[in-house]
Write a structure and sequence with these properties.
five-stranded antiparallel β-sheet; Alpha-D-Glucose-1,6-Bisphosphate, Chain A, domain 4; 4 helices; ATPase; 2 domains; START-like_dom_sf; six-stranded antiparallel β-sheet; globular
Length: 245
């Protein structure tokens, strides 16, 4: 069976339309993962898509078609609000081919988390490029309570978003952060120069994962930033492996 879907997420962002548009199109390593986009109408987009709307700083969209009726479309519509703020309407539409209900729920929850992270980038790291790394937990992090164990190890089991936490990571030292996002299946931590995002994909048939987005110091130097990101990924990977034996 297949299912067409449409996910709409709207939010106010503390930043100008120019800042939001730049983050959405050129700064994806800061809130999603590194994506190369040819910055023009008809240009090449991610995963074989094409840029179908290009009107800086108000509209960007890409679209791709595939076999058996598959398609995937991403749309960003940005309008100006008073006091240097913006309104972003994001729409993701496409087709799911299997495990429809579970995958649709996962897509909805991931969208909310990614779009929150985009807003955090614009507010706290405007115009700054990020170095990116991704970490996957071991097989044991696919257990039903896996993300709850991560939350406990981070010291956030009994706190709410907005609280500060500190965790010691071998090789990195103390990581002092604000909990900027907290949901059943997701956790976001923000420091002065980094964001750490934890994904409880154990709830959707996979394992716990995390992404690392580094904005400080040598992150503006691509080679040096990538090396720092790899070092952080190794340290956090060892932490997850230790947590799940």
């Amino acid at each position: 069976m297949t299912r067409e879907f449409k996910i709409v997420h709207e939010q106010q962002i503390d930043g100008t339309p120019e800042q939001v548009f730049a983050a959405a199109t050129e700064g994806s390593a800061g809130w999603l993962w590194p994506v190369d986009i040819e910055l023009k109408l008809g240009g090449a987009g991610p995963f074989g898509s094409s840029v179908t709307a290009w009107d800086p700083p108000h509209r960007y969209a890409n679209h791709m078609d595939g076999e058996n009726g598959f398609y995937n479309t991403l749309e960003f519509e940005i309008s100006e609000r008073p006091d240097g703020k913006s309104w972003l309407r994001y729409v993701h539409s496409g087709v799911i081919f299997e495990d429809e209900e579970n995958q649709y729920e996962a897509a909805q929850q991931h969208t909310a988390f990614y779009q929150h992270t985009l807003a955090q980038v614009v507010k706290y790291f405007p115009g700054r490029q990020a170095s990116f790394a991704e970490v996957q937990g071991p097989e044991g992090s696919g257990a039903a309570d896996a993300l709850q164990r991560v939350k406990a190890a981070l010291g956030i089991s009994d706190v709410e978003a907005g609280h500060r936490v500190s965790v010691t990571i071998d090789g990195l030292g103390h990581v002092d952060a604000e909990v900027d996002y907290l949901a059943e299946n997701f956790v976001g931590l923000r420091t002065e120069d980094a964001m750490y995002r934890f994904f409880g994909r154990n709830a959707f048939g996979s394992v716990v994962g995390m992404t690392i987005h580094l904005f400080g110091g040598d992150a503006s130097d691509e080679a040096a930033g990538d090396e720092i990101a790899r070092t952080e990924a190794a340290a956090w990977g060892a932490w997850l492996n230790g947590l799940f034996g």
